[in-house]
Amino acid sequence: MKPETSAIELHRALEEIWGTKPGLTRLAAVNHNVVGRRFMLTSLIFFAVGGLLAMLIRTQLASSESVFMDAEEYAQVFTMHGSIMMFLFAIPFFEGLAIYLLPKLLGTRDLAFPRLSAYGFWCYLFGGSLLIAALVAGVAPNSGWFMYTPLSSNTYSPGINSDVWLLGVTFVEISALSAAIEIMVTILKLRASGMSLDKMPIFAWYMLVVATMMLIGFPPLILGSVLLEVERAFDLPFFDPTRGGDPLLWQHLFWLFGHPEVYIIFLPAAGAISTILPVFAGAPLAGYRIIIAALVSMAFLSFGLWVHHMYTVGIPHVALSFFSAASALVAIPTAIQIFAWLATISHGKPRFSIPMLHIFGFFFVFVIGGLTGVMLAMVPFDWQAHDTHFVVAHLHYVLVGGFVFPMLAAAYYWLPHISGRQPVQHLSSAAFWMIFVGFNVTFFMMHLTGLRGMPRRVFEYPPESGWETLNFISSAGSFVMTMGFALIALDFILIFRFGRPFHRNPWSAGTLEWAMATPPPSYNFASLPTIDRRADMLDPNAIGPHLAAGNGLLAWPRGGRMELLAIDMVSGAPEHIVRLPRQTFLPLWTAIATGCFFLSLLFKVYWATPVAFVAVIALFLLWCGDTAEAKDVGRLPIGNGQELSTHIEAERPPSWWAMVFAITADATAYISLLFGGLFLWISAPNWPPQDAHDIGLSMPALAAVTSTVAAVAGWRAAASRPSSTGLLSLASLTHLATAGIMLWLALSAVPNPHAHAAAATVFVVLCYAALHSFMGAVFAGYGIWRIRSGFVSHARSLDLRIGAMWHGYSALIAITAAGFPFLLSALASEISR
Amino acid sequence: MLAAAVPLFLLVVGLFLLLVYKPQLGRRLSPRTWILAGGLGLPIPILAALTFYAFWQGEYLLRGGSELPADLVRIEATGTRWQWVFRYPEVEGNPSTVGVLHIPAGRTIEVAVESDDVIHSFWVPRLAGKIDAVPGHTNFLRLRADRPGRYGGQCSEYCGVGHAGMDFEVRAHAAEDYQNALGPGEQTP
Fold first, then answer.
1. Average pLDDT along chain A
2. DSSP labels, B145-162
3. Which residue of B has its CA nearest to A383?
4. I need a labelling partner for B11 at 20 to 30 A (CA). Which of A38, A327, A559, A779 fits?
5. What is the pTM of this model?
6. How far is A81 from chain B (nearest CA, A)?
7. Computed over its alpha carbons, how large is the radius of gyration of chain B?
8. What is the phi/psi pair of residue A508, to 5°?
């Protein structure tokens, strides 16, 4: 540590380590500044594509019986408009914003897993491009963005269209799940020293809740997509009512994701408002704790009201009324936030600026969307308005009001941070008013068209319907709105080109992201801050120079390593030093291999699928080399007279938590699968299956024993530490045995899985368990490899402990999977009696 | 609902603008009062009243928009790409029609809605709410036309390229004309 050296020298030394190198090496970038910007820019390009598709829709509907597009083209256009805006714009945009901002707001140098965010970006880019390529080739998905079966199944969509959606969106969702884990671990472990949970900036609270929702919300969608793709590709009938499947299973899985999704999109935007609005109000955010309580209750409620998308599928009215009440209830946490913002304004000295103008747009539009939302939550009203243009109007009011306007506020607010230049506000207001007026003209009319009975997703309507004038006004409004967005784009370019540079903190904010040079250096902070109050009431103008001069923690780079600080989750006390991996092409290669995996499924080149799968696993194993230590490091100074050990020798470092969260997501998918089977038993027609034969007790019991042995051996190996390759070999062999038994049961003991959904479900559950046991064998083999290479010691047992979690979890999967066939056949025989 | 929604909208947007320009007007209330009054006090009574009213209305609609009579007229509607087929099991000769649903006016009809292929949705906006036709399930919808006349109906769940044209017509007949309307000439095989 040499704190007396100048800030410039410190900057050079850090930039040398953290900075992205020029040329093709840019593709190896893992830094959150770069990856966050790439996410945002890519999502804006997809937004432009989705917007163009919307223009096509409005052109088509401007007149009745339009011949601009035929029904098939129109179907592809509206399906892709919805899918792009949801999966390729909204989610990736806020992920990008969070990736860019969170380390800065939290007072650290990067995210917990920089390579994972780079990998997520490539998956997003490739998966999104796949969808766009299909659109250009004229084979885009055409069953609507919620892909209801059986319309999307093989019988009625025999082409490649639905496969593109199922595989492309799943590919993109890898980035959502990896971002969820990344964001959770970063917020929980990588904050500034002293930043306890109740001192976190409010945006971090919002993102913590959002990431948790993503972790639980996305697995049902991914599972549903996998099941539908398996049905389409291999004819296992999960959704086919003639063979014991049920189209409603898809709807439940889809909306179990789809409703939380709305709040997943809204909450980051609300978090931006809770960050920006107090700055312009000139007062700290009122009701910090009650807002957090509102967020958490919103997250819980959002998983309990997916059925309000399904009021018309024939669910009994009493059951619907529970979901109706829950849907109405969700208005309360929203109202709490809105009135907390009003309270903040009333206790400050508000000033109007461009971001505030967009926040006004948010209030105006979102409140209307919320009110129509309460109307739609009422069952009898929904029976009329469901699937009409009223719903189209409502969802655009909610999503544009609840996401686009706040994000425009956020863009104007943080653009100076990204560009280092202040807005030149000539175009900004004009652009806002064009979007605002154009939006309201477009979508307010749709309420009326919907109430007059116009269903959604019709490509033409009869002239005598009385919908033509309203539709024409909508279309005219939409063109004004588009010009507004074009002006925004121009405005952003002008800011980058002609904006005035500024010294520091142009808005007089109180959060840490302004305590650095702008545009930010790759390492954010030359030394890391220590926080003693709520992190939105700080003074960046004082903290910035202090940290830049190297007066904080971890000031001087050590051995060319990227270091940052992990803290105790609750108290914020420094816990250990995290050493991050360097820039590498591995995320790109792994994403390419993952892409090959998806392409082999899409084009039905099934021999290549296992090859690509093994390549993905092998590449992921190569990731592990970078931060390994060949000998014990011990405690290192972090400045301020303190010493900490490195994460390799820590008890619960970020990677340990990442495994906990990954298992949580995986378990959500598995539980959805088991409940899917039980749902079919309750709901689907053509139950019980005809050929329910016994799979015998001995093999499932044996699988339960072998998987338990694997779990105990893996756990003992981690606990008894360092050199017990024998126990890991045992774990590896018993995992393989379990996987073998599961596959044998699936392939030869289960009745024909093509014949009935019951057998198909059992088949998939067994394969799921086989895959997990196989992965257990990989983890055990990896442990052996690490021990042999000398990377494991008494202190450095992290790899084995992470593996041990998987060994235990996969045993749970195997035991429940072994019992599941008995449960299902017992229940099925219950019906036949 | 509109009567409640408009004042609520004006209240929130009005408060926002008012407070941005004249924050001192809101300063007399503490932040806590603001949040409790606006976040709990305002929505809870409105939402509670609305939810109970909606439940009661829903029950009313489920009875077909009147008291539930003992003698329902039972009709089967089957969605198939891209037309509606109606069967009348209670009418002599078990007739069926395509694209036109004949009902007696002034009676409560129970339509059993099914699908032969993908999901459709049965909707006659002026007579009742909508109900999905889900393959493998039978859903029931009760409707009632008080006066003879023609009422438009359409499929309202996207079901493929013919979705926009999958409309039908409900013809409500006076009781004495109902049987005639389903006479041999009107039937389709």
1. 93
2. -SS-EEEEEEE-S--STT
3. B129
4. A327
5. 0.95
6. 15
7. 24
8. 55, 50
SS3 assignment, position B109: strand
Give the mean model confidence (pLDDT) for residues B24-31.
89
pLDDT tier, A828 (very low <50, low <70, confident <90, very high otherwise): confident
Backbone angles phi, psi at B169, to 5 degrees: -130, 140
Residue B189 in this model has a pLDDT that exceeds 50: no
Positive or negative, the CA dihedral A66, A69, A72, A77 is negative
Residues A501-518, buried b or exposed e (16+ Cβ, 10 A)? Answer: eeeebbbebbbbbbbbeb
Q: Which amino acid is at B61?
A: L
**CB nearest A312 (choices: B20, B55, B130):** B130
> Is residue A769 packed enough to be buried (19+ CB in 10 Å), middle (13-18) or exposed (0-12)?
buried
| A476 touching B (Cβ < 8 Å) | no
Identify the pLDDT of residue A670: 97
**Phi and psi based region of residue A424 (left: phi greater than 0; alpha: psi -120 to 50; beta: remaining):** beta
Q: Does B63 reach chain A within 8 Å, measured CB to CB?
A: no
ipTM: 0.95
Strands B100-104 and B108-115, by their bridges, are unpaired
The residue behind tokens 């959150």 is: A32
* pLDDT, tens digit, 9 for 90 and up, residues A359-373: 999 999 999 999 999
Which chain B residue has the Cα nearest residue A153? Answer: B118
Give the separation between CA A398 and CA A703, rounded to whole angstroms.
50
> What is the structure's pLDDT at A701?
95
Taking each continuous run of H as one helix and of E as one strand, the counts in chain A are 25, 6
Mean pLDDT of B9-38: 91
Long-range contacts, stretch A540-546, CB < 8 angstroms, 24+ apart: A540/A504, A540/A505, A540/A509, A540/A510, A540/A511, A540/A512, A540/A514, A540/A515, A541/A504, A541/A505, A543/A512, A543/A515, A544/A504, A544/A505, A544/A514, A544/A515, A544/A516, A544/A517
Contact A809, A775 (CB under 8 A): no
CB contacts under 8 A, A 505-524 vs B, are none
The residue of chain B with its CA nearest to that of A325 is B51
Task: Determine how β-strand B139-144 pairs with β-strand B83-87.
Answer: unpaired
Give whole-number Cα distances, A623 to A470, A617, A627, A661, A749, in Å.
Answer: 57, 10, 9, 19, 39
The beta strand positions in chain B, using DSSP E, are: 73-80, 83-87, 96-98, 100-104, 108-115, 120-123, 131-133, 139-144, 149-155, 167-173
Distance CA(A304)–CA(A297), nearest Å, equals: 11
CB B120 within 8 A of CB B153: no
Pairing outcome for strands B167-173 and B100-104: parallel
Q: Is A144 left (phi over 0), alpha (psi -120 to 50) or beta?
A: left
A741: closest CA among A671, A815, A689?
A815
Tell me A403's DSSP state: I
Total length of chain A? 833
CB contact under 8 A, B47 and A374: yes
A173-188 confidence digits (pLDDT tens): 999 999 999 999 999 9
Q: What is the pLDDT of residue A419?
A: 92
| H or E segment and range at residue A326 | helix A317-329
Query: Which of B17, B50, B132 has the CB atom closest to A378's CB atom?
Result: B50
CA distance A433 to A481: 9
Say yes or no: A317 contacts chain B, CB-CB below 8 A: yes
| Banded pLDDT at A779 (limits 50, 70, 90) | very high
C-alpha distances (whole Å) from A193 to each of A223, A453, A535, A571 are: 39, 59, 11, 9
Question: How much is the pLDDT for A503?
Answer: 82
Confirm or reject contact between B58 and chain A (CB < 8 A). Answer: yes
